[in-house]
Design goal:
Elements lengths: L20 E2 L2 H7 L17 H5 L8 E4 L2 E4 L5 H18 L5 E5 L3 E3 L2 E3 L3 E5 L21 E5 L6 H13 L4 E6 L4 E5 L6 E3 L19 H6 L4
Parallel strand pairs: 8-9
Antiparallel strand pairs: 1-3, 2-3, 2-6, 4-7, 5-6, 7-8, 9-10, 10-11
């Protein structure tokens, strides 16, 4: 898939520092020679969520948060190691029991955000489906469980705000995994976050994934396998 750099007219949406950029139609028109593009609708207004969703996907992926486009850092070794092991570990429990399914890097669009958590888990009955029963392309709902794995160049504040946003839209639980600190922060709605960093601590999970028995030590041991 092409990145924003492959499309000259999209270059103003991202900078090398991965900072949020507010997009206005007047800027886009200037870069596109005045032509009308599906990405722009109203003069001198920020890009809407609907307009953002018409843009090509980027690598690394981009999120839409409060009228801003924020490009996520490229996943690196620790992030990918944990993500690659955790998704099948969750699915071995919830998918096998037909109660849910974990997805890596799945775009979820709800409220006024379009975000791509490291891992999302949905209960089976909430997974959007096509008319033939296949998993749908578009997920316009919040996940039941959102899991973020912090990257070295990523803002912990921005990631935490995405987790809290999910909780406000019905997500049961959020995890923020910090590989460098070997700590997992667990978020529940209207409860104080909990920090888990002892190897033998059993990590809490949503009720539908109660059979998943994973300790802090198990989780971070994947970095050495």
């Amino acid at each position: 898939m092409r990145t924003g750099s492959d499309y000259p007219c999209f270059r103003p949406f991202f900078d090398r520092q991965q900072q949020p950029i507010k997009i206005k139609r007047s800027q886009a028109v200037q870069r596109t020679g005045g032509g009308r593009s599906p990405m722009v609708r109203a003069l001198s207004q920020e890009l809407t969520l609907e307009e953002f969703l018409q843009l090509p996907e980027t690598k690394p992926t981009s999120e839409y948060i409060d009228g801003q486009i924020i490009q996520k850092p490229t996943p690196q070794g620790k992030h990918s190691s944990i993500q690659g092991e955790l998704v099948p570990a969750i699915n071995a429990v919830v998918k096998a029991a037909r109660v849910g399914r974990a997805f890596p890097e799945l775009r979820c669009t709800f409220g006024n955000r379009s975000i791509v958590p490291g891992i999302t888990v949905f209960r089976t009955e909430r997974i959007p489906r096509d008319t033939d029963g296949a998993v749908a392309h578009v997920f316009s709902i919040a996940p039941d469980w959102t899991i973020e794995i912090l990257s070295p160049d990523q803002s912990q504040t921005k990631v935490t705000k995405n987790i809290l946003y999910c909780l406000n839209y019905g997500t049961q639980m959020g995890w923020l995994i910090d590989p460098d600190e070997q700590t997992v922060l667990v978020y529940l709605l209207q409860q104080q976050p909990q920090a888990f960093d002892l190897p033998d601590e059993l990590l809490p999970v949503p009720d539908f994934a109660a059979n998943l028995k994973l300790t802090v030590g198990n989780l971070f041991a994947w970095l050495w396998e």
